[in-house]
Structure formats: C-alpha cells, structure tokens
C-alpha cells in the first residue's frame, strides 16, 4: 500500500503516524499459534487495531468477540473512513523549498533526534523491535531481559523443541508486508537525504573531497545505462550459525560464519552487525535499494529451524550485495566482510559512521556520461518503473499470501487428507485380516492394502515436509524483492525532486534570476542523478530476471521431485499387488 | 449398522418400521447441492428425521436451525433413546415356531400383500422409489408425471446441461448405505423365505419335483466347499446406453445393450428389466447374496455422465452374476441375457414369476457331499464370517465416505487451491509484462511465469477430472460389496435358524418324540444348507480377493498416472525457463 507511485513516500509517512484505534478488515485467514499472543483472524472480519508498534510486521488488535492478540499487518486492510482523525502529515521536506539552506555534514548523524517527526510510539517500535537479536544477545544497549535468559537456558538444556518451524518461517516472512519497516526506513532515509543536502548537491554548494577510490562510474552500454560492471565477481558463503556465549555463558548469541571467495578468510558476524551494516548502507546510498535483512521476530517462537532459515535469508542478503556493482565495492561492506581484528573493527566502525559521502553527498562521487538526458524520456522511464514496482508489489503480495497459505495447508489439511485416505485403506486391510484363510493370494492382498494405507500416510508426511523445499525458498526471494521494491518510491521521489529543482532553476534562468552557466551546472548535476537512477533501474531489472528465473526453476524442480516421490511411493504400493 | 452379527436381520426390520420423528447425529459432513432439496449437514450435529421414504438412501430431516432438507441416511446415526416409541417389531417368522404349517407354493408370489408387515410409508417408498426409471419411462404403472416430461423435453432440446456428474455419481453411491434398501430387501427375502418354507424343507414336507437341469451341485475340493465350478466361463458387455422412445416420442427411456460372449447376440434391456431380474434372483436364492443394482436416484439430477456411470454399475452387476457358479447358470438369468423376442420374453417372464424352486424350496435342488458337518466347526465358521462381514462393512463405510469426500474435495477445494497458485503466478507474469525491455531473456521469463500460472490452472482441472478415474471405479466396487455383504446377515440367520431347528429335533428325538431316522433326515438337510452356506462364503471370499485386487490396482495405477501427468505438466513449464 505504500507503493503506488512517486508521491507515495510522503504519504507513507502519514500511515505511520496514524493513531491506533482505527479499524481494519482481514484480507486472509490467519491461524494464530496456540499458546502464543497471536490472534486467529478470518478473512472478512473487522478488527480494531490497538497497537502498531508490536514488532516488525505485527499489529495488535481486538476482534468483535473482544479477544485481543497479534496478527500480521499484511493480512488486513484499513476500513476506509473508520479511523479517528490522523495526525497531520509532517511538512514537506524543507530542502526543496528553501534553496539557501547550508549543508552541515558533521551534523548528518549527530543529531537525528532533533529533526524527528515521528511520534514516540513509532520510534519505540524501532528501538524496541529487535526482539530476535535481544533473544540471543544480552549485550545489547538495553541489557538482557528475563525472557531472553529463560529462552537461553531452555535452549541450552534442550527443553525447547522446535515446533513447526517451516510454517513459521514462511508465514513470518509473509506477515511483514514491510508496512512498518518501509514507513520507518523511508522516513529515515528521506530525512537523512534532505539533511545531507540533495538540494545543496544540485546547487553545487557541497564541499567534500572525493578520493579516487570512492568514485563511482556510470556508463552507457548496449544494455543501456549501467553501473561500472563488476570485473572480479565474488561470492560469500553464510554458514554454520553457531550459538556462542560470553561472560562465562551468561550471555549468548548466534554467530554466522561468512567466507568471501576472494580471500577465503572466515569472519564471524552476529545479527546486530548485519543490522548496523544495513543502516550504514541505507544512509549512504540514497538511490540504491538496499536488500532487506530477515524480518525481526517476536521472541521464543522458533529455534533451530528458524535459525537455519534465518541463515538462508542472510545468505540472500549477502548474495544481493555481492552482485551489486556499487555496494559490493564499498568500504563499509568490505570492512564488514573482511575485518577479523576487534580493534580494527571498532576503528572501521567509527570511520563508517563518520562517512561524509552519505545521502545526497554520495552524488558527488558519481562519474556519469556527458550526454545530456532528455527530460521527457526520463519521465517516461520513471513512470514505467513506478508502474512496474506497483504491479510487482501487488503480485508479490498475492504470491507471498499464497506461499503462507499453501505452507499452512500442506502442514494441516493436505497432510490430514492424505492420511485420512491412508486410514481408510488401513481399515480395509484390517478387515481383510479377518479372512484367515491360508490361501496366500488373499493374505498377500491384505498386506498390499495395508501397505497402501501406509503409503498414503507417508504421502501425507511428504506434504508436510514439502513447503520448506519449494515455497520457503520462493518466499525468501519474494521477501528480498519486497524489501527492494519498497525502497523504490523514495528513490523515485528523490529523483523527481531533483527534476523539480531543475525546472525551478530553468524558470529562474528564464527570468534572468540565475546565470546560464549556473543553470547548466544544475542541469548536469540532475543528469548525474538521473544516470544513477537509470543505472540502478537497469541493475534491478537484470537481477530480478536472474533471481526470479532461478527461484521459479527451483520451485518447479522441487515440485516435480515432490510429485515424483509420490509416484515412486505409489508404484511401490502397486507392486505389492502382483 | 444393520450388519453386526447373526441376529441383525430381525432387528433391521425394526429400523424400517420406525416412525419418523426420531433424532440422528451426523457422522460426516455432507454438502448439499445448492438449488436442490438437499440439506447440508455437519459431523456432530443433531437432526430430527421427518421422512424416511424419500428415495433410496435419502432421508428428510430438520436441523436445529429449523431448515428442512434431504441428506444421505448413511451419514447419520441414531441418537439412542431419542425416538418416540417404535412400532412393535413384526412377529418372529412363524415357520420356525409352527412346525406344522403347510407350504402353499402357489401362494408364493400371488398374495404378498396379505402378509405385509410393513407400514404403508415403507411400501410407498418402494413402489414410488424408482425415480430414475420414471424419469425416462412414462410407460410405468403410474403413468408419466409432468416432471418427467419436462425433463425429457429439456433433454431433447439440449437445455439440460449435465452438472458435476462425477461428484454426484460417487456421492450418490456413498449416500445409499442400503439402510432403506437392505431393510426392505431383507424383509421381502425373509418373508419369502419363511413363506416358501425353510422349515418345511428341513422337516422334509416339501413336495416339488426337481428336474435334472435344475440341480445345483456342491463339492469339497482342496479349496474347501465349493459350488460346482463354472466350466465354460463367459462375460457379457453392457454397452451403449441409448435413449429410446415409443408412442411417437411421448415416452422415452434408456436402453442398455447387453452382448454375452457365448453367443454374441445383442439384447436390449432397460433398468426396469434389471430390477425385475434382481427381484427374481433375490426371491429364488435364499443363500446367495445377489449383487446390487445401481442405486435408484432422485430424478433430474444428472444426465449423460450419470447414465454412463449407471452403465458401469450395471456392468459390475452383470460381471458379478456371470462369475457366480449358481447365478450364471440359472434359467431366469439366461432368459434375461438371451431372449430377443417380445413374445418369448413375456412367456419367460411369466414362467420365472411362477418358479416353484424359490426361497427355501431352492434347497431341494442342492446336491451336497455326504460327509456330515461338525456343528462346532460350522458355528466357528459362521461366527468368523459374521465378524468379517461386520469389519468389512465398517471399512467400506469409511472408504466410501472417503471416496465421496475426496471427490468433492478434488472438485472443490483442491481444484481451487491449485488454481489459486496459478492465479498468483499469473499475477507475477502480468507484473513482469510491465518491464517492456527488449532483452529477450526478460521477455522469456515473463512468458515462462505466465505458462507456470496456466500450468497450475490446468493441474486444478486435472484434480477436478481425476475422481472419475480413480475414486469412482473404486466406489463402484465398494457399492457392489456393500450390497453383497448387506445380504449376509439374513443368510447367516437362515442358516442359524436351520441349526436351531436341528437342535430342536435332536431334543425331540432324545425325548423320544421323533424317530431317529426322521432326525437323521433333518440333520442331513441342515447339512445341505450348511454346505450351501460354506460354498457361498468361499465364493464370496475368492471373488472379493479378485475384485479388490483389481480395484486397488486400478486405483493406484490411475493415481500414478495422475501424478505423472502433473509431473509432465510441471516439466513443460520448467522447460520454458531455459
């Protein structure tokens, strides 16, 4: 719902400041996990939202029977006209209306709170939202909670049995439509961008030195506008999530082992390191949609299967960064990928946090072709992109809901139905047992029918196990692209803002209030932003084609193998009748 | 429920005379066909039965919401202690309590009504129950109804579109647990048997001449006690159900073409001829369970698919008779199978209806081994048979309910789920259409995703079409055996009655009230009945083993072929991604 065109990122800020108490209608059925705070909802039923800052992708609400609980925000849509008056939207970014604002690069990270437009609740959601990491990491800012320790000891003593991890994993993915996330992220990125001076860049007032190695080149090729292609491609394995502990076992966390192919040296990273990296990348690259991290979780729901699935999602994030011509080369990423020394880690961390070439300042590093852009073509291109993103968002939503739904159905009704068939045949086999005639043919029939019963029981189990082979990996790709496309509206807005600024300057020049040499500098700089956008759109489309081709191939291969397994089992059963 | 041991046939008479108004609890869900008189019921809900004489296998009832409608009697069980006082059961067969009753063979068919114990409603159900034949046959006793004419003209003008015939067919099979049918049939057979003088046979008071060709031989072989085996096996095709008409098209009916393999001469028979034949066989062979005809139907529900399925069920009946050593040789069956001439048909019909060797008189024709039977062995054997029948009845009930349920699920939810998956992929394919880049790889991806969407849509259709290939033929075999085993309790009761009579005579002889030569004749005659029973049980088991082996093989082969079709479709879709 955030993604419906260029104007959306501003509107999306409205949605996150909406007060609780508005009414929503369930789009899909959601079966809450028994014994948790989850609330089962039924498609069509109307709920009143009581809290939106529960955790990523979850809302709290009360149904018409008065039951309160959590449900996935993605599963509901707002009932129009039902909400109490929303808070007024925050003012439009000042940078685009006040051309004389000076850039204070030192202030970029230092005083974010000063300009904070978000209500406290939304902020709380952000700061308190990392339940998952808290669960394993008492070393976080806020210190450990009793819950996390309980979980840890339960895990250590083997008392926590992973339960239906696979449903959970896929369904969890499905639950985050990124409404909360996108809203918050967009807001952060956007204010960062404004504060870091997109305006100033266009007007040429940014004074930051750019080292040669920081320059980012854009070319025109037969494939269109492209980022400087990766010349030495590499991959990085994310492996062996391990429970580690410190302070004599009092505090424990999960560490993932990363091994880049270019040096084969393993580094150990925790989720909070990924999270920190993700923030850096988002701040730095205003025009690059940063692939999403796995969703944060309400704690204590899944264990081993969840961690393995989390690893797969981190691998998807790492793959996506490794394949991005700009991200894969950037310093903070290289630091994250290679630093093995605690001291150097902290130094690199500080350095990255003080990076001046973030937000709009990143534009200074761009080295684009000289050919001027045609503004009409650009508008067509961005309009097309916007439309694509909108369509893809809808399609991903449907497919994600299908993945969640099918996963649940495989593990519930499908399994049950096949086992019911098995039960019916078993009953027949049992009845035939009553014929104790020694005639071997009849005995063999009884055994064959019994085996048929077992076969359908096993097919039921195959159904249960199947989603983690087909739907879950597909859902991971959907999750990746859901995150990526959720960044596009902001990116398009930044670009649109630059074109708007250019038009203002053209008007000023026409009114002889701006010199033509100054105008042509402005035009050049907006062209640089346009080149960057075009390069990114191009990269997005070619990655998308590759990723979805692989994802669909994997999905279909697993489906084929699944039905072949069923065929093989049935053939075995049939053989018993010979 | 009728089948739980030897005493049951008497109890089953109680169930058919029970007044309406008793309460039943639904054992299974049943989804009524919208727009018909059917009432959807949910497992566990309690209904009050308002009418039992609706049609074969259907009852009318009212649910707790006050809705009235029809539901399958097999889907409910009586709530104990809920019914108003039932009518008293009919008196026990007099023949076993009044040893001096004389046999009046002339009266066997002539005055059935005189001894009628059934309440009128049950009788109405019987006479008015052949809805299906009425539908096509205005030539019946009551003449055509407006409904049947409407149906005919609608059919002729092509207005009647066959709707979901396959569900209907299987579900219809499932709906008749034969409670009504069995009840009625048992009652008829039983009274016929009593009136025809089982008692008299045992006491040796029957005076009917037996021609050599009417003698039925029983042997002991290495396979146990057997009917004189079939020496010239034959088959008979039931083919080409055709709508025929007479009286210048005013009256129309379906005719089936039967071609026996021994002469290859085709005869044309209508359902009412089958029905007449079935009545003759039931009356004649007290100890042979006659395979059931297809269930009669509430009219106007199905058309072409229904007729084809009806043909398949008639074929199953014909096969079963052809393979029975006694039935396949009997005169009325041969007449039915070979008579092509209208005049000879009527003569043969009259002759069969006047057959003296029916019911207990049929025993006179039996030529059994001389070796005396051991009464303890016999009791063990019949107890085992009774237990087997009971177990098999339960298993068939479960499997039939599964067949009905799976058929509905294939045509409803399964189809829908797969088509939903198809829809989700189609949506993704559509979204990718928005990327109109000329790069062929991306275009090819869009097309491949679109094809994947279509593929799942087609798999949905495969699901819909599948049950008529696997569940429906299996259900036909279940229907056949459901009918056959429903006859066993009566047969076992007849046998038990004869053993009881033998004991009475042994007591009379011990008290010197019967001469020992007379007793040894009684013992011999009860042995003959026992031999016949053992031969029939033996035949039943070997046929059952053959039929279920074939049925299970066919079911599994069709299931394998089904999943292979899915695999092939998915492989085609996968190929599009190359």
Automatic annotation (TrEMBL), chains A, B:
Q: What InterPro entries is this protein classified in?
A: AH/BAR_dom_sf, PX_dom, PX_dom_sf, SH3-like_dom_sf, SH3_domain, Snx9_fam, Sorting_nexin_WASP-bd-dom
Record domain PX: where: 234-344
Q: Which SMART domains match?
A: PX, SH3
Q: Where does the UniProt annotation place the signal sequence? A: none
Ranges for the region named Disordered are: 105-181
Domain SH3, residue spans: 19-81
Q: Which UniProt keywords apply?
A: Cytoplasmic vesicle, Membrane, SH3 domain
Listed GO molecular functions?
Answer: phosphatidylinositol binding
What's the superkingdom here? Answer: Eukaryota
Q: Where is the composition biased (Acidic residues)?
A: 130-141
Q: Which residues bind a 1,2-diacyl-sn-glycero-3-phospho-(1D-myo-inositol-4,5-bisphosphate)?
A: 270, 272, 310
Q: Which GO terms describe its biological process?
A: endocytosis; endosomal transport; mitotic cell cycle; plasma membrane tubulation; protein transport
Q: Which GO cellular component terms are attached?
A: cytoplasmic vesicle membrane; plasma membrane
Say yes or no: keyword ATP-binding present. Answer: no
Q: What does the sequence similarity comment in the record state about its family?
A: Belongs to the sorting nexin family.
- What is the official name of this protein in its record? Sorting nexin
Origin organism of this chain?
A: Cryptotermes secundus
Instruction: Read off the lineage from the record.
Output: Eukaryota, Metazoa, Ecdysozoa, Arthropoda, Hexapoda
């Amino acid at each position: 719902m955030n993604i419906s065109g260029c104007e959306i990122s501003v509107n999306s800020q409205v949605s996150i400041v909406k007060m609780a108490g508005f009414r929503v209608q369930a789009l899909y059925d959601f079966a809450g996990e028994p014994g948790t705070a989850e609330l089962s909802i039924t498609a069509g039923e109307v709920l009143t939202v009581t809290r939106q800052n529960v955790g990523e992708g979850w809302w709290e609400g009360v149904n018409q029977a008065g039951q309160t609980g959590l449900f996935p925000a993605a599963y509901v849509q707002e009932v129009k006209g039902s909400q109490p008056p929303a808070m007024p939207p925050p003012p439009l970014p000042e940078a685009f209306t006040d051309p004389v604002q000076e850039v204070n690069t030192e202030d970029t990270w230092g005083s974010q709170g000063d300009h904070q437009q978000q209500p406290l609740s939304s902020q709380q959601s952000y700061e308190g939202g990392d339940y998952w990491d808290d669960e394993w990491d008492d070393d976080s800012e806020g210190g450990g909670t009793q819950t996390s320790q309980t979980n840890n000891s339960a895990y250590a003593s083997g008392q926590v049995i992973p339960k239906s991890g696979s449903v959970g994993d896929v369904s969890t993915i499905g639950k985050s439509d990124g409404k909360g996330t996108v809203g918050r992220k967009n807001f952060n990125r956007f204010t960062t961008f404004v504060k870091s001076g997109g305006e100033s860049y266009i007007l040429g007032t940014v004074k930051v030195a750019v080292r040669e190695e920081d320059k980012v080149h854009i070319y025109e090729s037969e494939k269109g506008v492209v980022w400087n292609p990766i010349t030495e491609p590499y991959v990085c394995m994310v492996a062996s999530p391990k429970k580690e502990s410190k302070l004599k076992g009092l505090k424990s966390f999960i560490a993932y082992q990363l091994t880049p192919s270019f040096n084969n040296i393993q580094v150990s990273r925790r989720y909070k390191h990924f999270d920190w990296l993700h923030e850096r990348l988002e701040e730095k690259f205003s025009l690059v949609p940063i692939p999403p991290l796995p969703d944060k979780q309400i704690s204590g729901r899944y264990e081993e299967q969840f961690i393995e699935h989390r690893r797969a999602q981190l691998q998807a994030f790492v793959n996506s960064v490794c394949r991005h011509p700009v991200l894969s080369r950037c310093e903070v990423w290289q630091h994250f990928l290679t630093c093995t020394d605690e001291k150097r880690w902290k130094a690199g961390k500080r350095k990255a946090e003080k990076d001046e070439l973030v937000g709009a300042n990143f534009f200074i590093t761009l080295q684009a072709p000289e050919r001027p852009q045609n503004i009409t073509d650009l508008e067509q291109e961005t309009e097309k992109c916007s439309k694509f993103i909108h369509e893809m968002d809808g399609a991903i939503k449907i497919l994600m809901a299908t993945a969640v739904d099918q996963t649940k159905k495989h593990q519930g009704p499908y399994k049950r139905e096949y086992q019911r068939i098995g039960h019916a045949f078993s009953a027949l086999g049992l009845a035939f047992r009553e014929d104790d005639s020694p005639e071997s043919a009849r005995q063999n029939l009884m055994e064959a029918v019994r085996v048929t019963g077992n076969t359908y029981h096993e097919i039921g189990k195959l159904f249960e196990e199947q989603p983690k082979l087909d739907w879950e990996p597909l859902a991971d790709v959907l999750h990746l692209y859901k995150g990526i496309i959720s960044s596009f509206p902001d990116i398009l807005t930044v670009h649109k803002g630059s074109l708007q600024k250019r038009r203002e300057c053209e008007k000023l020049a026409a009114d002889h209030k701006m010199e033509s040499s100054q105008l042509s500098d402005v035009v050049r700089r907006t062209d640089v932003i346009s080149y960057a956008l075009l390069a990114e759109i191009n990269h997005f489309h070619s990655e998308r084609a590759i990723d979805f081709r692989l994802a669909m191939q994997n999905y279909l291969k697993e489906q084929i193998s699944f039905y072949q397994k069923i065929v093989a089992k049935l053939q075995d059963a049939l053989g018993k009748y010979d």
